[in-house]
Specification:
Length: 140
């Protein structure tokens, strides 16, 4: 393998490492979104009966205000692209559960991509090690 090929391999490995880091960050973001969605569903399901639920509402910088929520009142659900819709509790729960399924699929795809990139990186490292060994070995 020539020096040019080794340089190209090194650049390819650096690009793969960068892509792998990006995939890991995206996985972490999706996992946070999954946890947030699961918490939202759990909170909505916890609002039952005709008694107002007391909660804390964040107003910014760690400041909260106590508020009472009627479990039967409509909820505002962000559906993306800056748009929100008003839904009853069951519709909001169903929407969030469908989003959770979508996020789980995205997480699986990211894990699959991360595995593929890791395999390619290992192959590149193996090729680089072979190159280093062949350059260290005296030619006969």
């Amino acid at each position: 393998m020539s020096e040019e090929q080794a340089q190209a391999l090194l650049q390819q490995m650096q690009a793969l490492e960068s892509y792998l880091n990006d995939l890991v960050q995206r996985e972490e973001t999706v996992m946070r979104l999954l946890q947030e969605a699961a918490n939202a569903v759990e909170s909505m399901k916890g609002m039952t009966g005709n008694v107002d639920c007391e909660t804390l509402v964040p107003v910014g910088l760690g400041v909260y205000v106590k508020a009472k929520i009627n479990p039967e009142q409509k909820m505002i659900v962000n559906i993306g692209a800056g748009a929100s819709v008003e839904q009853d509790k069951n519709s909001a729960i169903n929407y969030m559960e469908s989003r959770i399924k979508e996020l789980e699929m995205v997480l699986q795809q990211l894990a699959s991509q991360r595995h593929e990139v890791s395999v390619k990186l290992e192959q590149g490292q193996h090729e680089m090690n072979k190159l280093i060994q062949s350059n260290r070995s005296p030619t006969q």
